[in-house]
Amino acid sequence: MKKIFALIFALVMALSAAACSSTPAAEGSAEAEVVVFDPEAPIATIGDEVITFGEYEELFNTYAEYYAMMGYDMENDAETVESLQDFIVDTLVEEKVIAYQAKENGYDQLSDEQMAEIEVTAAAELEDMVTMLREQAEADTEEDSTINVEERLAELFADETEYYTGIRMTQEEMGQWIKDYYMESAITQAFREAMLADVTVSDEAIKEWYDAALAEDTELYAANPEYYKDDKESEELYGDYPVVYAPEGYKRMLHILIMPENAMADEYYDKETTIETLKAEYGELAFAVDVEGGEGADRMKEIVSEYKQLKADMAKLEKEYFASAVAKADEAYAKLNSGESFETVMAEYTQDTEQTEKGRLISNQYVSDYDWSNEVKSEFAMLKVGEYSKVIQDEEGCHIVYYLADEPAGNAELDTVKDAIRQQLLFEAQDEEWIALVEAWKNDGSVKLDHDLIHSLEYRPVAVG
């Protein structure tokens, strides 16, 4: 469901940011008479697109609760309420404006192939949601035999849909909601691409960005070469403007990571806490005995004995914790020794989700924010290009690393990063153009708002109990 609710979460974040400049709640808010409006009354029209009071009220009530939970006085702070109302209406209007303009430009239909794909995707999304909530309903039934699974599932489902959308829905209604979401998204994307087809980025703009970035990166990594690893790997993993200068001292490696299958036993952390307590007691006794000449030497001996036993117990628990990872790592290592390529074994075993086709960066000269352990660095330092390490164990799990190549230091040639720069500049240019288009459509006279009806809506706190 994450993809579906991305827009809603974005709205929550925007509302939260807007609320930060509002006035905190005052005590003793007065009760107000509840006025009921026609839920079908239009608060906004955009051509033949309509936003009803009911749609607006549902969204307002949902997010007004976020404001209230953050401590803002939604019953008495008129400025905050009006700001929230305008923000919600603008968000709803923007969606309808895009839908209206898409229809006007002939982008209101999807192909049979697109519809078939959406049907499959929507069904899978709904099934995932139902499966998750059914497991919870069945668990609740096991705890209380009077609970009916299907009734509990329907209740959980309605709660879940209300939490994310502001509307309590059945499975059938939510299935349609998901399908509509994907249809609208596909139409909007096709329309957006068509409207931005002529947006381009010149070679001059690319060269200008490259020159500025080269000067900035050279200065940054000359002063702080340890930043390079994290910045470069972030670029390669998530996609962004390229890093165009590399300091000396970095290598590339391929990485097999195998982590323990289960969590460390709670007993391990209990013993760890006990050890810290013993250390503190030992320190106090040592001062009393050595400095003040007091008693406590016998207790100090007991603490040493207890400490050694706790460490031995922890070592045993740690060995049990790492056993599955060690076994798999030894298996992978045996395959490497039998002649299988590192890439083949890595593809089968590694759990490193941050590895790209270029491998991972490592340096024994610098310490980065997100760096390798000393164990990994020490073993890598003994390798030559084309060699792989033995199994290395650290807090993360078991590693086997392969020295792939040295990272070329100095400038990245413009031709090697030109396409990446063009793509990022194009994204920015398209975003700017799209924002300008939407703003123009919102202000071209096609949008009609009923401001009185919009601002007549009052916050009603959710009753507790």
What does this structure look like?
The strands form 3 sheets. Strands 5-4-7-6 form a 4-stranded antiparallel β-sheet, sandwiched between helices. The protein is extended, with a radius of gyration of 31 Å. Among the domains are: 84 residues; 62 residues. The N terminus is likely disordered. It is built from 14 helices and 9 strands. The two termini are 30 Å apart. The protein is 60% helix and 8% strand. The chain is of the alpha+beta class and 465 residues long. The longest helix has 41 residues.
Topology:
Blueprint: H1 6-19, E1 42-46, E2 49-52, H2 53-69, H3 78-104, H4 112-143, H5 149-165, H6 171-195, H7 203-223, H8 227-238, E3 245-246, E4 251-258, H9 266-290, H10 297-337, H11 342-349, E5 360-362, H12 374-381, E6 392-393, E7 398-406, E8 410-411, H13 414-442, E9 447-449, H14 451-455
Helix pairs in contact: 1-3, 2-3, 4-5, 4-6, 7-13, 9-10, 10-11
